[in-house]
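Second opinion, please. Pick holes in both lines of this record:
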Amino acid sequence: MTTYGTIPTASTGATNLEYLTRAKQAIKTGLGTRQPWKQMFNLASFNFPHTISEATPRFKTNINYFRMNYAIIMLIILFLSLLWHPISLIVLGVLMAAWLFFYFLRDEPLVVFNRVIYDGVVLTVLAVVTIVLLLFTDATKNILSSVVVGVAVVVVHAVLRRTDDLCDDDVEAGGSSS
């Protein structure tokens, strides 16, 4: 009798377990780039800026420093607004997979046609694609209100939170502190 192929020596269970282990590690690593929630909501670090010139660098620094946290907050607010729209939740689930793959769990820069795509561009494109696809699910009012609420929460936090207690290396990467 002739054999036309070979029997694989590695079981698929080991391959699946290896894949799950790598995914679990990627999730831990990806979420590790966010800043601690306790640091983000440290009440002693909040006060009103006295001038616009004080608020602007504070806003820029906090946006860069807490970027991952802000993205998570926006997605949670969007999720909560769609609880009564099951089709929108399915679309959001698919989009969340895209967010995980392209933004949260990437450990190398995204390269398209031999060009590096920076995190800010990836974040902007994912946000726009998420909003546009969800608008096609007839949940327009919920989506727009959740985006407005999310942006308001992010802007208020970024302006009110002082930056003098942030880690020096991360602050220098994000801008000047005030």
Summary: The first helix runs from residue 12 to 32. The two ends are 79 Å apart (CA to CA).
